[in-house]
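Because discrete structure vocabularies remain unfamiliar, we first show an illustrative case, written as a sequence plus integers encoding its fold.
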Amino acid sequence: MVGMPISGTPSRSELIQHLTATRIAGDVATPRENNLSHYRKLANGDRHYWLGLELGDRWSDEQDVLAVMAERVGVNDDPGHRYGQDTIDPELTVAALERMAGRLRKAADGRQRVLLATGHPGGLLDVHRATAAALRAAGCEIVVIPDGLTTDEGYVMQFADVAVLEHGATLWHTHSGEPMKAILTALEQEGRPLPDLVVADHGWAGYAGQHGVDSVGYADCNDPALFIAESEGTVQVVVPLDDHVVSPRYYDPMTAYLLAEAGLDAQ
């Protein structure tokens, strides 16, 4: 694969080339028809696609959703383009990584409490694990979640400093905000402080932002809710990317770039 491997931390231009070569951005695998279907379902009020957020009736026009996604992700802005290839602009991916790095730097400087979580462990678990390790090395407190938490989908647990959903002895892919709700509710009930920052994806990031916790995260071009939340200021930063490419190792140069921009060492 062109662009793999990259030793050390890539330059900005090298990272853009790598993201395109590995289809983390550029011409991504997610088809246009899938993107538009999800935009429509969000606009029609299907809460599965709200990712833990409360959108009310503010986004009931799917063309408004498409406009946000074109601006923040780089999907094709032509509503007449219904089938075939769609895109994520790698320049937007890297710009969002740089904004996320600024928030991570603030967390490290303040030795803040940080909670990391993923609803896409098959792709993003190690991105979050490396981020947690770097923040811990910088003096941050990585929040330890309460024991015994469950949702209708399974058990909420922590693996490699990253909160995940476990079901049938398997780490579970979920879009739900319920696991994050379970964590934040339990922390409040135990009288423990909430995180200063959540670094996550899917409903984990959405619910945290909705609950008033600073939240940054990652989202694919068929998951518009987090980009809408970013546009409204509910979530601080959302990085557009394909969240499950052929190998999770393809994300390593991206993670190295993120942590270097934040002034943190990859662990």
About this structure: The mean pLDDT is 96.
